[in-house]
Amino acid sequence: SASSNGSGTRVMIIGGDGYCGWATALHLSQRGYNVCVVDNLCRRQVWGEISGRHIDLAIGDVCDWEFFGEKFRTFSPDAVVHFGEQRSAPYSMIDRKHAVYTQNNNVIGTLNVLYAIKDFRPDCHLVKLGTMGEYGTPNIDIEEGYITINHNGRSDTLPFPKQGGSFYHLSKVHDSHNMAFAARAWKVAATDLNQGAVGHPLTVYGKGGQTRGYLDIRDTVRCIQIAIDNPAKSGEMRVFNQFTQQFSVNQLAEIVKQGGKKFGLDVQVSNVPNPRVEAEEHYYNAKNTKLQDLGLQPHYLEDSMVDSLLEFALAYKDRVRMELIKPAVDWRAKTGQAAAAAAAK
Amino acid sequence: SASSNGSGTRVMIIGGDGYCGWATALHLSQRGYNVCVVDNLCRRQVWGEISGRHIDLAIGDVCDWEFFGEKFRTFSPDAVVHFGEQRSAPYSMIDRKHAVYTQNNNVIGTLNVLYAIKDFRPDCHLVKLGTMGEYGTPNIDIEEGYITINHNGRSDTLPFPKQGGSFYHLSKVHDSHNMAFAARAWKVAATDLNQGAVGHPLTVYGKGGQTRGYLDIRDTVRCIQIAIDNPAKSGEMRVFNQFTQQFSVNQLAEIVKQGGKKFGLDVQVSNVPNPRVEAEEHYYNAKNTKLQDLGLQPHYLEDSMVDSLLEFALAYKDRVRMELIKPAVDWRAKTGQAAAAAAAK
Ligand SMILES: NC(=O)c1ccc[n+]([C@@H]2O[C@H](COP(=O)([O-])OP(=O)(O)OC[C@H]3O[C@@H](n4cnc5c(N)ncnc54)[C@H](O)[C@@H]3O)[C@@H](O)[C@H]2O)c1
Ligand SMILES: NC(=O)c1ccc[n+]([C@@H]2O[C@H](COP(=O)([O-])OP(=O)(O)OC[C@H]3O[C@@H](n4cnc5c(N)ncnc54)[C@H](O)[C@@H]3O)[C@@H](O)[C@H]2O)c1
After folding, report:
1. Segment 58-77 of chain B within 8 Å of chain A by CB
2. Does residue A310 have its Cβ closer than 6 Å to ligand 1?
3. Residue range B274-306, pLDDT digits in tens
4. Which helix (H) or strand (E) holds A59?
5. How far, rounded to the nearest angstrom, does the alpha carbon of residue A344 sit from its chain's CA centroid?
6. Which of B131, B137, B211, B244 is an active site residue?
7. CATH number at B10-202+216-244+285-299
8. B151 and A147 in contact by Cβ < 8 A?
9. Which fold has domain A10-200+217-245+283-306?
10. Secondary structure (3-state) at B156
11. Cβ of B41 less than 6 Å from ligand 2
């Protein structure tokens, strides 16, 4: 499967030390793309070399223009994949300071990327990670980025209305608006990948009827490659909803419960009070055809997947830090009251 | 007209040293409101005392939490009017630095205001200045903040899709999303006043078919008072479109041309190349009934108004700095190329 579509295409990966970014860097590097990772290592301090291929590594902050502008100019990428944001919703809700940090880090970082493209490489394709959480849970079908609205006898296709549920999700909403403008004003070619959850929350908050989109990490990296290989046109701000299946939290809990039986486990599902502000029972139907139209073949969450995850979890169960699983941040809590301990995942 | 609706209501006015803010401070103070102005004086350095009533003045930055949080806590307002943002679209488009400054100043300032309300005075009513420019120029009627969308047999009332045309306009879009979230999550009572243009651009960019909403500065201050006197409910994020008339740039030019005749002036209308990225001919129909339903009696742009403005302009014509009228910032220009001289109005 290590087909060499890449053939030297220069891809800059911002946030390439992260969960999705590192997997993507390996995936693309293996397939012959010329990869440069930019990361401020705000999540970890260790970095290794990978076998065979070279990954250019630039340690620094995308919000630091002196550093980032110069690195972008000299690497001169054909595509830039931007993962480099603070991506924890609970973290963004700890208090004012964390909300400000999140929105500043994410919005200004993306502004810098847009200006770097405009000033140094106008035809570089921006592939930006957004989140399905930008849409909230409207009572109508969620389209991919845009919706055609008929109103008082007239019609227009407009950005899908956004209702982010935390200051993190809202930072992504802000990014999307800034990117759409850069596409209109400067003819930047951009793809916004509104990703579903890659990790699977197993704690049931409240009623557990919250339905969301999910995808396998193996599909995450393929989606990124598909976006790079099929770039947006100049001036186009394309939005793909990047998930492969929808589940409610209760459905996920049930799948794990069933899977546990094979291992002789009696999985208990407990409903804990919901620290978030969200509808716990709602309509949810989001479209996700565009990536599959471009060739994505989903890895669905199947029994075998659940089995291997459970096996893994059982093998290392003594390493689990239980105190990190329970919610540490309450969306409604007063600033300062919230546990700073919430190095919130 | 100096009815004393105020009777001691504590109103904090952020950005009260500005064009709209100062007029509002005087208007409310005269009517018995207990006014505190917060401003970082980023636009001017002089401040005077006004006759009779006292206006509490706090010089500092709304982005500086140590200063602002403390002032908010001790003044403990019933309503806070937030004018305190960088409000020039051309300024925001000079280069990367000005875009970053604008979005940081505006978005973080509003985040601070939201946290101040949440932490110190949850029932304080936020009256925030937005702009009609948040909507862009969609091909459908512009509603006041929300639109009911029927889609695939289902229906929901959602935030009206936004398409800001500069990083300034986009900062207001970001504010609106953050405010709507604070209303949902923390039950903040908020009114977003999407204001039309208070000044009248007389330079015709491009074809001049650009249609926008306008209002008289005397109505601006009344709209603010109406919002304060009829506060939003807890958890409500209300949006009013604050303008009284719609004109195309060509229509405005024609009105001035006609007015000029009375003064024996042969007003020349010249079309200059458009530095902005915008549709120059488009459908435009925005709703503005909510403020009038609450009692606003508009001062329409009439001949007498144009006469007095022309009289004023003629009396001081030797003070006009012609070089400041022509556009100094090009939306498409490369960073650094744009005249920093654009202390852009
Ligand atoms: N993991 C998911 O389920 C999921 C779901 C939806 C969207 N996303 C989005 O995908 C992207 C990657 O998510 P992830 O789970 O890999 O997150 P992660 O935290 O593991 O990785 C993010 C990386 O970005 C870096 N970073 C953050 N701010 C930076 C800055 N200013 N300059 C340079 N580097 C910076 C961090 O050091 C980290 O290595 C994020 O934008 C996230 O919002 C993730
Ligand atoms: N004037 C218009 O036609 C118009 C149209 C639509 C919307 N608006 C909005 O109305 C509001 C007021 O506009 P204006 O024309 O009076 O602008 P202005 O520039 O005259 O006034 C803004 C004031 O806010 C202050 N300020 C800016 N950032 C601040 C910060 N971080 N902390 C403290 N003070 C700060 C400035 O010093 C200034 O006194 C703005 O939010 C603007 O976007 C104005």
Report:
1. 65
2. no
3. 999 999 999 999 999 999 999 999 999 887 888
4. strand A56-59
5. 16
6. B131
7. 3.40.50.720
8. yes
9. Rossmann fold (3.40.50)
10. strand
11. yes
